[in-house]
Structure formats: structure tokens, C-alpha cells
Amino acid sequence: MDKTDIKSLTLEELTQEIKGLGEPAFRAKQLYEWMHVRMAGDYDDMSNIPKALKEKCREHFEYTSLKQVRMQESALDGTRKFLFGLADGNVIESVWMEYRFGISVCISSQVGCRMGCRFCASTLDGLERNLRPSEMLDQIYAMSRILGKKVSRVVVMGSGEPMDNYDNLLRFIQLLTDENGLNMGQRNLTVSTCGIVPRIRQLAEQHLQINLALSLHASNDAKRKQLMPIANEYSLSEVMDACRYYFEQTGRQLTFEYALVGGVNDTEEDAAQLIHLLKDINCVVNLIPVNPIKERNYTETGHSQVVAFKNKLEKSRINVTIRREMGRDIDGACGQLRRRHLNEQVGN
Ligand code: SAH
User: Is the CB of 193 within 6 Å of ligand 1?
Assistant: First the structure.
């Protein structure tokens, strides 16, 4: 049987485990603090934990920690992209972005992805496995430790579909926002989904203050189906209803991500349909010129057309931002660095 993953336990659960090992409860608190506040890479770093307890822990628990396989730093904007090795040999990627208001990190929720979005590199080889809560936390902890700075915002927008790993996602959120841990404010956390409707509704009912970003990418069902297989399962009207429900339940402004793909979803008519779709929704639209991947022949929308698209939305009083294209020189888009690494390993 697999050992218990110590870093995925809540403080209450850890306390029970530690008591079960015949140790006093305060040791659980100390261990928890080492893992989730001081972000220790290993038991060896835990100076106030007796050697005998460290040994017991090694015997009873698994301690996840990520191995830095690569780090690429953008010469353009200081964005760093990390490739981390997991205990089972899989690799995942995470991104570190420094803004004027603080540091944002983008983390992966799965190894690979099974959603099949046509423009996305993460999904080309399908889903390998879900990430555990500890492995999601560890991406934040490892980058923070390596770069010696505190992270102020986390976006679950890396490889994988977080709503396809729902239980682990919820536990990750619980641990990240725990006052005994890193204590991140829920409002500083954003989860991005391709639109798994029942999960959006379930998350809404948790009444958390986290931000929801919905990958929309098209303003009618036919075009959305061309780009995103999930659109065959849930219609746009079902997705939009779920988003409205999320807003009703949480009061959080929604973000709609819209990757502009040259000649596919970037016309004036697309913008007009988008305006219609979003009327009376409290939201911001994040336009992302698609980052072309070599496995598909999509091209990005030219800058002037991006601006025209934005202007048209703004005329209808929709809030719009254009995603700053950070880290484009370092395989910035979802799954590109991991894919390059895997290809190099098999000699492609
Ligand atoms: N599965 C989740 C989160 C991961 S993808 C989701 O679909 O939202 C994060 C965002 O990046 C999504 O909006 C996704 O559609 C977008 N994305 C993926 N590959 C891209 C590319 N090559 N260019 C631009 N955006 C891309």
C-alpha cells in the first residue's frame, strides 16, 4: 500500500496521525509549519524535530518534493519557467511572473490533460495522471524557496484541467488558504477551467472567494466545438448559466479567457456575438493572442486586429484586458516546455 502523503494532510488529520504514532499533538503543528510555512524541502531541514520522530515520519509517510529539471528565464520580462521532476519520473511545468504589484505563479493541476483543446500543447499526449494536493502546493513552495521571494497570487492555469481533478483541487485550496499554512487569501487565487459545468456548480456551492476564469474562446457553439471538444458535452448556454450561478453564489467577478486564433474566432461578427453572450454578466474578458504550437497550424491574430476586437467590446462597456505575452521566448504557453523536454528525451 502507498504511504500516506504527509503534505496533503490537513493539520487536524496530521494531528491524528502523529498522535497515532504516540507523539504529542504539538509535533504535528511543528511539522505542519515546516512543510507549509517554512516550505522545507526535506525532514533534514526541520531543526526542532527530534531525529527519532523524523525517522518515524520517513517510515510512515511519503514526503513529496520536486526536483528542478530546468529553469528558463525570459530575457524579455524576467518570467521564469520551471520544469519540475516528480517522484515517479513525470515532469510538470510551472511559471513565475513578477509584476509591479507582486509575484504571480501559474501552476499545473495534472500531468498532461485529456480535454483535447485544439490549440493547446498540454493535451497532445493525453492525461498521464492527476497531481496530488501536495504536488500542487510544492510548485509554489519550490519556486518561492529557490527564488527567495514570497508569492502573492496563484493561478491554476498551467497544464491540466483543475475541474477534472476536483477533489485534489479543493484540498489544495484548503491547504493553501489555511491560516496555519501559507495563509493565502482566497481572493488571490484563480482557477481556470475549460467549462466542466457540474464542477463549476459544485465549486460555486463551496461559497469560496476564489476567482473563476472560464476558457471561452468562441462565442457560438459551432466554433467552440471546433476548438474545444468539451463543447460537445456542454453547450454554451449551459456553461454561461453555470458561470452566472458561480457569480450569484460567490459575488466574484468572472474572467472569460478568449484566445484569438487568426481567421477562426477573431472577426467583427465574433466580437458582436461575444458582446451579446456577455451582456448583463459582471465580467472581464482576457484576450490572449494564441501562442501557435508547431503541431497545429493555427496562427495568432495580428496586433491591430486584437486592438480592434478589444475596442469593439469596450464600446459595449465590457471590461477587457489583453494578456501580456510574458515569457514567449521561453515556451510560455501551456505544456510547451514539458513537450520539448519529452521530445528531446526520445530524440525527436
Ligand atoms: N484547463 C484549464 C486551465 C489550463 S489552460 C482551462 O482550459 O482553462 C490555461 C489557459 O491557456 C486556457 O484558457 C487555455 O485555453 C489557454 N491556452 C492553452 N494553450 C494556449 C495557446 N497555445 N495559446 C493561447 N492560450 C492557450
Answer: yes
* Ligand 1 within 6 A of CB of 336: no
pLDDT band at 348 (very low <50, low <70, confident <90, very high): very low
DSSP E strands in the chain: the ranges are: 4-5, 61-62, 67-73, 80-85, 91-99, 102-106, 110-112, 127-130, 153-156, 189-193, 211-215, 254-260, 283-289, 319-322
> pLDDT tens digit string along 295-327?
888 999 999 999 999 999 999 999 999 986 666
Contact between residue 215 and residue 228 where contact means Cβ atoms under 8 Å apart: yes
Q: Are residues 26 and 164 in the same domain?
A: no
How does strand 102-106 pair with strand 153-156? Answer: parallel
Decide: helix, strand or coil at residue 19: helix
State the pLDDT at residue 326: 60
**Cβ–Cβ < 8 Å for 172, 68:** no
Question: What does the pLDDT look like over 255-304, one tens digit per residue?
Answer: 999 999 999 999 999 999 999 999 989 999 999 999 888 888 899 999 99
Going from the Cα of 118 to the center of ligand 1, the distance in angstroms, rounded, reads: 10
Per the structure, how many domains does the chain have? 2
Query: Does the beta carbon of 192 sit less than 6 angstroms from any atom of ligand 1?
Result: yes
CB 120 near ligand 1, within 6 Å: yes
* Nearest alpha carbon, ligand 1 atom 5: 157
Whether residue 37 is found in the same domain as residue 149: no
| Claim to verify: residue 173 and residue 41 sit in the same structural domain | no
Rg (CA), the chain: 21
What's the domain range around 29? 4-62
